[in-house]
Description:
Layout: E1 3-8, H1 14-28, E2 32-37, H2 38-43, H3 45-61, H4 63-73, H5 91-101, E3 105-108, H6 111-122, E4 130-133, E5 150-153, H7 156-164, E6 172-174, H8 189-196, E7 204-208, H9 218-227, E8 233-237, H10 242-251, E9 257-260, H11 266-272, E10 275-278, H12 282-291, E11 295-297, H13 304-315, E12 318-320, H14 327-336, H15 338-351, H16 356-371
Parallel strand pairs: 1-2, 1-3, 3-4, 4-5, 5-6, 7-8, 7-10, 8-9, 10-11, 11-12
Helix pairs in contact: 1-16, 3-4, 8-11, 9-10
Amino acid sequence: xxxxxxxxxxxxxxxxxxxxxxxxxxxxxxxxxxxxxxxxxxxxxxxxxxxxxxxxxxxxxxxxxxxxxxxxxxxxxxxxxxxxxxxxxxxxxxxxxxxxxxxxxxxxxxxxxxxxxxxxxxxxxxxxxxxxxxxxxxxxxxxxxxxxxxxxxxxxxxxxxxxxxxxxxxxxxxxxxxxxxxxxxxxxxxxxxxxxxxxxxxxxxxxxxxxxxxxxxxxxxxxxxxxxxxxxxxxxxxxxxxxxxxxxxxxxxxxxxxxxxxxxxxxxxxxxxxxxxxxxxxxxxxxxxxxxxxxxxxxxxxxxxxxxxxxxxxxxxxxxxxxxxxxxxxxxxxxxxxxxxxxxxxxxxxxxxxxxxxxxxxxxxxxxxxxx
Length: 372
């Protein structure tokens, strides 16, 4: 039985979603899978909690500082002294884990464990064939290291940029971002609306901001939708934030807009929507592309989300509202122009990769066979 180690990290929900998707797919191939959270299990639980708290505080209170750090990190090699050793965190315990589990294959879905494994290989530690799965639609220096065997990336544009930064073409593979199996299954919009208690007679605008809804700007979206005079149905997803949910409910009281908390069945919501208003998280983009749900991006955070946003705009899969004053006219334009929405869907149809999980697993297992 093939033994696979997947190393993730709990910074945003996308990395862990990708890890779970891959783990389930490897198990379907009868592999023995171990999933490890790098910061919590290989560095220290206290470091994990404190660093995630700092990360979320920066994104809430001073997002420009996170954006500055992200941009600065892209200008330096992942093994630079200026990283203050962050990219080598957890290497000792990671090495011990490799020795104890003796995996045949390793997959990373976060930059830090990817570079930590490269550091171990540089020190002469035997590292099994190692694939890293980039979960955003951008290339970044902190993902790049000399001893990563293969990069699975979201789009050809990311592959081209990695090659331009010195990664050999044979080490990069365009697979897409792993999404949950249900996103590969077709769902008729009318069926989805009926299941959700929505009418087929008025357009549906879905708005969300990831599992931590407070990190988006959903109150702006709520005000914009509540002020619109045209018939529409709105669905606002507040995520794990009861205070935000209460705020959104208050802002939309007496309208045809409903507010939800955390939702598992995002697939059905996207199928029901004519337009999705959201910030540009990598997983959200991948899921919207899989379902061909037209995007209006708003409130993207500095750093990887702004770069994801630029990718989506260049690729032609999204409209972008850069400030709250553009929200209402862009929503109205989208709902009034069926041809525009179909153009967005057609481009998504060309770029979408709902089978990304299967492609990644097949590539990793094939790599394992080649190295035996």
